[in-house]
Amino acid sequence: MSHEHSHSGCGCCASMDRRDFMTAVGLSALAMQSGVTALASSAAEGPAAGGKPRIRAVFLRPKTDKYWMGWPGASYDISARQADYTKTMVEAAQKLGVDLAVDAEPVADMAAVGALLDQCKQSPPDGIILTVMGLSPNFWPHAERFAAERGDIPTILFSPMGTSFTGHLQPTRKATKCFVAATQDHSWLATGVRLLGAVWQIKNTRMCIVNGEKTFDERLAVIGTTLHHIPLVRWTEELAKVGATAEVRALAEEFSKTAQKIVEPKAEDLINAAKTYFVAKRIMAAENCNAISLNCLGLIGARKIPCPPCMAWSRLNDEGGTGICECDWNAGIGLRLCSLLCARPGFMQDPAPNTVNGTLMGAHCTSATKLRGFDQPAVPIILRSHSESGLGISPQVLWPVGEPVTVATFQGPQKILLATGRVVANINTPPAGGCRTSVELDLDDVVDPRDCKGFHQVFILGRHERTYKAFAQLAGVEVGPLA
After folding, report:
1. Going by CATH, does the domain composed of 18-47+204-481 fall within 3.30.70?
2. Which CATH architecture best describes the domain 54-199?
3. How far apart are CA 49 and CA 444, in angstroms?
4. What is the pLDDT of residues 322-358, one digit of tens each?
C-alpha cells in the first residue's frame, strides 16, 4: 500500500465458526481428490528462463600426502579433507540445482594457476570456489594472482582453519566480486554454493510487472534482473477465465484449515482468493517469469476485482516464488534475494516509526507464513479482510515475539541497506489503523526510527546480515546501514 493513500478503519465482525464456514463451501471431498499438497511450486529452484548456474571448485595445495611441521599440521588428512569439502559442495549443488564441476587434481604451482586462468577466460564459469589447503609452502600468492586476474567471475576463496593468518587475508579483502571465507566450519561451503548460485539466479530472474498498457522488457544494471512489463488489463482478463474448479476449492479449504481464526471473510471470499493464486501462476508461466507484481490498489479502488492478491502473494512467497505489491521492483528484488539467500520468505511492509517506543513498526496486508524457512512449519495466521477496502481476504500473520530479525532494503541499481533487531509485538487492526499484518521491531543501533531509510523494506526472521554482506561482495553491490 502506498503512503499516499489514506487509511480507513475496518469494522471487526464476529469470527465465523470453521465448521459453519466449511459447510458453506463444501470442499472436503474435493480436497482429497485434487491433493492440495501437489500445488507446491519449484520457483525457488531455478529461474524461469531455464538453465543452471555453472560453478567450478578447485583446490590449492601441494601434491603431497601429508604435511610436516607448520600449519595445517601433520594431523591434517589432506585427501580426507578434500573429500569432505567436495561432498559438502556436491550435496549443496544437487539441492540447489547448481551445475558444479569439481577439479580433483590440485592447483599446485603458479603454472597451474596460469592454466586455470586461461581455462576461465576461454569458458568462464558463473562462479569459482577456490579452497586454499595449506600454509607451507605459501599458497596465498597463488590465490592472490587468481583473484587479481580472473576478471569479473564471482569468486570465493575458502580458507579452512589452519590455512591462513591475518596477514595472508589482507591482499584479497578488497578484490571486486570476491569473498574470502576463513572459518573452521567446513559446512559453510554449502552456503558458498548458495551464494554463487544466488548471484546467477538474481541476474536471470524475470519479474512480471502487471501495470500500464504496454508490453516491454527492461534489464536492470548491476543486479541484472529483467522487468517484464505487461498491461494491467491482463489480470482482469485472466481472472475472468478462472472458475470455482476443484483445485480452486481445494486451495480455498487449505487457506481456511491453516487459519487460527476467520474474522471478516465469507466462503465466497476464500474462493476468490484462491483464484488469484492460479491467475498469478498462469501469468508467470505464460510470460516465463518467476516473480510477479500487480497494481492491485487501482483495480480494488475501481472495484474491477472482488479480491486483492494478498493470499496469492503469501502462498507464492511461502513456496519460494516472489509475489510483490504495488509494482515495487526494488522490494521485489529484496524479496527474491531473501528467498535465495536465506531459504525463507521475507515481509515487504510500509514502515511506520514509533517515536514513543523508539521502534519501527511495519505493516502490509500480505505476509508469507513460512518465516523460519521453506521446510519449517508456518507461524499462526488469522484470515481478515483487506483493511483499506474491506474486500476479500488478507492474512494477519503473527510474528514470533522475542526472535531476532534482519531488515534489508534493496536500492537499485546496486545498494543494500541492513539492520538487525528483534520482534517486540504484533499489532491488531483495529484498534490500530493500517494493514492486517503489523509487526513492531526493536532495532539494534537505531536511536531514532525516523532515520530508517527507504520504503517497503523487507523484514526477515533471523540474523542474516553476514550472508547479505557476503552476497554483496560477490555481486558487486554496496552495503550500508538502514539508519
Report:
1. no
2. 3-Layer(aba) Sandwich (3.40)
3. 39
4. 999 999 999 999 999 999 999 999 999 999 999 999 9
